[in-house]
Specification:
Layout: H1 16-21, H2 27-51, H3 58-78, H4 87-106, H5 120-129, H6 132-149, H7 168-215, H8 219-247, H9 255-280, H10 283-287, E1 288-290, H11 291-299, E2 308-313, E3 322-324, H12 327-343, E4 347-354, E5 358-365, H13 372-375, H14 397-408, E6 412-417, E7 425-432, H15 433-436
Parallel strand pairs: 2-4
Antiparallel strand pairs: 1-3, 4-5, 5-7, 6-7
Helix pairs in contact: 2-3, 3-4, 4-5, 4-6, 5-6, 5-7, 6-7, 7-14, 8-9, 11-12, 12-14
């Protein structure tokens, strides 16, 4: 049986961007928080009415708490624990929570009630998990609610014969306190949530890039597997061809065809033998290479863009590190060099240096360098500004991916501008030698 569409399942009224870019709130999480609210409200009313014996509109308060509990119970039995709320549904439920809480506060003293600050909770949840347009609407509704609370005619439950009158100035001060707390906490929750989402998306993109870079290095293993799987049927074909050649050697009608069949099967076996050799004997050549060869392989694709690319080796090649063909390192360095070429005026310098303790690579360009406000944020995802007059775009997700991949390999990166007399940017990438040298004892 197909359930009819309801408030929770409705997907109209919001964009695809809301669906894909926002982190949808899990219904079970909201239900548990609401059960906590039901328990807290019920306990508070019980203490005030039966222990402190303050006069309290008990029936109205109990009805409001029961309404919240009933909605929560309905959601629990109606939807599975894994159900996730679409933005409109989350907005409606959080708005209902806000309205129920404000109604309870309204009949128990309004802003004079010490629990009035709890109005901020649904707003903070919304800003932490929902699209900004829904969250903005909710905080607007919350501002209206706390304004109405300031004009509550109901007294704060207190001792018999004692009435607490809160001065209008005090009421206004409480209103400002709750409003400012709500706005600050909502903005903070939104910023933290947005940065966490961007970081998660950027790391996912990093994993996709690394997976793509590793794809080609796996082809030799596939070739070996194919050679192994095809070896048995080809051996059978060869044996049968030999038997046929022996039986039909005097039959001119089939002798040439059988000889051709046997020669072609032998040729297929030779090809598979070479594939197997490529995967085993050629593994060291394909997967390990000297540091100088790796750097030249990375630099070579960027020499054809009208920018002079100079490679300086400060250390002798004798005794240089032999590195594994690490897809993350090669992609990361390639991205940094490509970025330097994009922003250089005439020249990019790549300096390589190594000793017994470290391996250092410095990439310098003669462009305008990094803007001061960007220099402290380099490496964050979606930082997209750099001083260059004739190029749109800049430093963003690509640089974040490169930095992340290089740091995973054990490198430390320093981004800086060159000396004042030589304009441009400089990137220093340094590894402990034992991490990058395949011949070192790790």
């Amino acid at each position: 049986m197909i359930d009819k569409p309801s408030m929770i399942d409705n997907t109209e009224g919001y964009t695809l961007e809301d669906r894909h870019n926002s982190r949808r709130l899990r219904l079970q999480t909201l239900v548990r928080l609401r059960w906590l609210a039901v328990g807290g409200q019920a306990l508070t009313v019980f203490i005030v009415a039966f222990w402190l014996k303050f006069p309290l509109p008990l029936i109205a308060s109990s009805s409001l708490i029961a309404a919240l509990a009933w909605v929560n119970f309905y959601l629990t039995i109606r939807y599975p624990p894994t159900h996730r709320l679409e933005p409109p549904a989350a907005f409606v439920l959080l708005g209902f929570d806000l309205l129920q809480l404000c109604a309870l506060l309204f009949i128990t003293g309004g802003l004079a009630n010490p629990f009035a600050a709890l109005v901020c909770v649904p707003v903070i949840i919304s800003f932490a998990s929902q699209p900004i347009r829904y969250s903005t609407a909710l905080i607007g509704f919350a501002m209206v609610c706390i304004t109405v609370l300031a004009f509550s005619p109901f007294p704060l439950p207190w001792f018999d014969g004692v009435e607490i009158n809160v001065h209008n100035v005090m009421q206004f001060g409480v209103w400002c306190s709750i409003a400012s707390t709500m706005a600050f906490a909502a903005f903070y929750a939104y910023r933290v949530s947005m940065e966490a989402s961007q970081l998660a998306d950027a790391l996912a993109a990093t994993e996709l890039v690394l997976q793509r870079e590793k794809h080609l290095s796996q082809l030799d293993g596939l070739a070996a597997a194919a050679a192994h799987e095809l070896g048995t049927p080809l051996a059978t074909i060869s044996v049968v061809a030999k038997e046929m050649e022996r039986e039909l050697k005097d039959d001119d009608r089939f002798r040439e065809d059988v000889m051709l069949l046997r020669s072609q099967s032998e040729r297929c076996r030779d090809i598979l033998r070479r594939l197997t050799t490529l995967s085993s004997e050629g593994e060291a050549h394909m997967r390990r290479l000297p540091l100088s060869s790796m750097i030249e392989e990375i630099v070579a694709p960027h020499r054809e863009f009208g920018i002079a690319l100079e490679l300086i080796e400060k250390s002798p090649r004798k005794g240089e590190p032999v590195t594994d063909r690490n897809a993350g390192i090669m992609y990361g360095l390639g991205n940094l060099i490509e970025n330097a070429v994009d922003y250089a005026r005439e020249k990019v310098i790549v300096t390589v240096e190594h000793d017994h303790d470290k391996v250092l690579i410095v990439i310098e360009d003669d462009g305008n360098g990094y803007a001061p406000d960007i220099l402290t944020r380099i490496g964050e995802p979606y930082v997209t500004k750099r001083q260059k007059e004739d190029t749109a775009g800049g430093l963003g997700l690509g640089l974040f991916i490169a930095k992340t991949l290089l740091e995973r390999s054990g490198a430390s990166l320093v981004f800086e501008n060159r000396d004042p007399e030589s304009a441009g940017a400089r990137i220093r990438i340094e590894w402990p030698r034992m991490l990058i040298d395949a011949n070192s004892t790790k």
